[in-house]
Design brief:
The chain is of the alpha/beta class. Helices cover about 45% and strands about 15% of the residues. It folds into two domains: about 10-175 and about 345-395, Rossmann fold, CATH 3.40.50; about 185-335, Rossmann fold, CATH 3.40.50.720. α8 (about 180-200) runs antiparallel to α15 (about 350-370). The longest helix has 24 residues, at about 180-200. The structure holds 1,4-dihydronicotinamide adenine dinucleotide.
């Protein structure tokens, strides 16, 4: 019989078990939703694919869905965020995993193919790649009851498909639930981005100038945590309201062309292409650190830097040093990929407890629905409220009615 997994090394499973065990008693909201959904049996004998950053919290979501009776297939939405030990442990626990840390783009798409040809009933997507694949290969989409999208970039891609009248499947904007973006994008990315940067560099942030590109939910979190660590924070924006909001929150606001000369650390959080380009990098101070917290690795123009630099070398794990013609050096962290995940452990466990509870609620919504319409759905208010109320309970907080 053909094996239905592909991981780097199955012998890494014990280390993966340890990581999964650590998170497994720290996601009480997800456990509560599991208890609520179990009696209805909506997940029984359904095939569910997850295409999210494959690390321990994702593993716990996969195992929870399996416990509800589904067959679960998993890949990582970004090869740089796939943890090989977690992938191995999941295989041992009966999940079909196709993922390898650092896989090539070609391998990544072949993982999606290996999963989707088994004709899923629902998918959890993070960034929109699985959705794109299903639109290009509709022969694999005949069972699809719903696509649950985790992040801003993926939701934007879904909105575009819907605007163009090309959306073929029911989809839901998990990111837009209040219980997701208000906490995950802001506090989760805020904390984990700085955990990753300080871990990779072993350098001080207090008293330094931090440039945050974008003042959306992620940017707000990254800026607030930098300020909390004692940095001077500069924000760059293209949206006049967000720019003014950043100013009134006490940050300096200017163009990237001006900020480039001042920053010690640069963090992009826009979801858009080429926010930091060669013309900016050439103006930077010697020793500047560049990181990206947006979904894709195209916010810092690393390919142009590679071409223009006199030389570059890896100087620490996930730290590349580039020597420029002007004699200065700059450092690229986590290869310009999503810093908190590719260069760290991702969001705090108790933040992902909320985001993945919304995911489970949305999967349940689609699997129990009678032929949901092929459009972009909003997360139902009752799911959004349930997750936040359960979280308040966990925190021991009672509020007025
Ligand atoms: P958002 O839409 O709330 O914010 C993006 C901001 O970037 C907007 O205010 C926009 O005006 C600004 N922007 C766009 N182009 C710009 C430019 N050229 N210069 C300066 N600012 C610019 O989106 P959100 O939720 O903050 O997400 C941002 C990115 O982070 C997305 O790619 C999202 O998928 C990703 N994300 C990453 C997470 C992580 O764990 N690292 C977690 C959640 C989201």
């Amino acid at each position: 019989m053909q094996e239905t997994y592909l991981v780097r090394d199955i012998n890494l499973a014990p280390r993966g078990d340890q990581l999964i065990n650590w998170v497994s008693n720290k996601m009480p909201v997800l456990d509560e939703l599991y208890e609520k959904f179990k009696p209805a049996g909506a997940f029984k004998n359904k095939k569910i694919a997850l295409c999210i950053h494959l690390e321990a919290k994702t593993a716990y979501l996969a195992l929870t869905i399996k416990k509800l009776g589904a067959e679960v297939w998993v890949t990582s939405s970004n090869p740089l965020s796939a943890k090989d030990e977690v992938a191995a442990a999941l295989v041992k626990k009966g999940i079909h995993v196709y993922a390898k840390h650092g896989a090539s783009l070609q391998e990544y798409w072949s993982f999606l193919e290996s999963i989707l040809k088994n004709k899923m009933h629902a998918v959890v997507d993070d960034g929109g790649d699985i959705c794109e694949y299903l639109h290009k290969h509709s022969e694999y989409g005949e069972n699809i009851m719903g696509i649950c999208e985790e992040t801003t970039t993926g939701v934007n891609r879904l909105k575009e498909l819907e605007r163009e009248g090309k959306l073929k499947y029911p989809a839901i904007a998990v990111n837009d639930a209040k219980s997701k973006h208000l906490f995950d994008n802001r506090y989760g990315t805020g904390q984990s981005t700085w955990t990753a940067i300080t871990h990779l560099t072993n350098m001080n942030v207090a008293g330094k100038s931090v440039v945050v590109a974008g003042y959306g939910w992620v940017g707000k979190g990254v800026a607030a945590r930098a300020r909390g660590m004692g940095a001077e924070v500069i924000v760059t924006e293209i949206d006049p309201w967000k720019a003014l909001e950043a100013r009134m929150n006490g940050y300096r606001v200017m163009t990237m062309a001006c900020a480039a000369r001042i920053g010690d650390y640069f963090v992009t959080t826009t979801g858009c292409r080429e926010i930091i380009r060669m013309e900016h990098i050439l103006d930077m101070k010697n020793g500047a650190f560049l990181a990206n917290a947006g979904h894709f690795d195209f916010e810092i123009d690393v390919p142009a830097l590679k071409k223009a630099a006199k030389s570059y070398k890896v100087v620490r794990d996930e730290v590349e040093e580039y020597l420029l013609d002007n004699g200065r050096i700059v450092y690229i962290l986590a290869r310009g990929g999503i810093i908190n995940i590719a260069g760290g452990f991702g969001h705090p466990v108790d933040i992902m407890d909320m985001s993945f509870s919304v995911q489970l609620g949305c999967l349940h919504y689609f699997l129990s629905a009678d032929k949901p319409e092929a459009k972009l759905h909003k997360v139902p208010e009752e799911i959004d409220r349930l997750v936040t109320e359960e979280k308040l309970k966990v925190e021991g907080i009672t509020i007025d009615k």
